[in-house]
Amino acid sequence: MSAPTQQPRQVEHRITVSAPAAAVYELIAEVRNWPRVFPPTIHVDHVHKGEHDEHIRIWATANGEAKNWTSRRILEPAQRRINFQQLVSAPPVASMGGAWLIEEQPDGGALVRLFHEYRSVDDDPDGLAWIDRAVDRNSRAELAALKENVEAAHLARDLTFTFEDSVHVDGSAEDVFAFINDAQLWSQRLPHVAKVRLEEDEQGLQTLEMDTVAKDGSTHTTKSYRVTFPYHGIAYKQVTLPALMSLHTGYWTFAEDEAGGVTASSRHTVVINPDAVARVLGDAATVEDAKEYVRGALSTNSLATLGHAKAYAERAR
User: Do residues 81 and 113 lie in contact, with contact meaning Cβ atoms separated by under 8 Å?
Assistant: First the structure.
């Protein structure tokens, strides 16, 4: 690789938020909520976590492509500043860093400033233009989502719920993982899956599209990005959603026990779309009705999938 010949590109995006600066800072500082807050983010894991210094691995979409990278963050709570630097970047990015800065406003709100500094591989101008577009698109989406989520925090609490279904498997975690990982075979293995397409252009980073048949016979199409962690977990985020949901993330986990079996679980986090409740469930339906309906539908499919995974793993043993 040739030596860098150009100065890094430096850009800033900003937005005002009608919420206290401290609340905004906390939302950005806690990475576990990022898939719920930032549309491009699929999943975030801590590689290392200190008091103010941490390494995180992020999986996100950029210009319609799923990418992943590792970043270092230094948190400065007193200044409400979070510095970040990608440790391992994905081409065409050669280096990427920046900072979040949250400033109190006289009206009690906050000004959020998002800085980026980056360079393309070999200072390639086409690569730099690609990064320019990705940073601009993702920054605008992140800031708009941040504003929406913070300002509607009280509403989001009422609309958001998490639940989990589990089965015990007398088999190995590797075999249960294989069944969930090999989703390209689900239309042959799962009665509720009519059609499926799985792509894995990068090891452990999958794009899954499938047509699922509901109990009433209707079919809906979903698209998800999945991140796999052999043989203990698969995280995913749906990006094409049924009308009742404005967000759906999930995590399959496979935990071995001392007896040699496995607890296989499916955890869902859902945000209900209140504007769709009456249209889908009728004028008398409430958000709680929508939660019950969505939980029933997701649990039915999850338990069916876990049941078939259990049978597969126990036959393999």
Answer: no
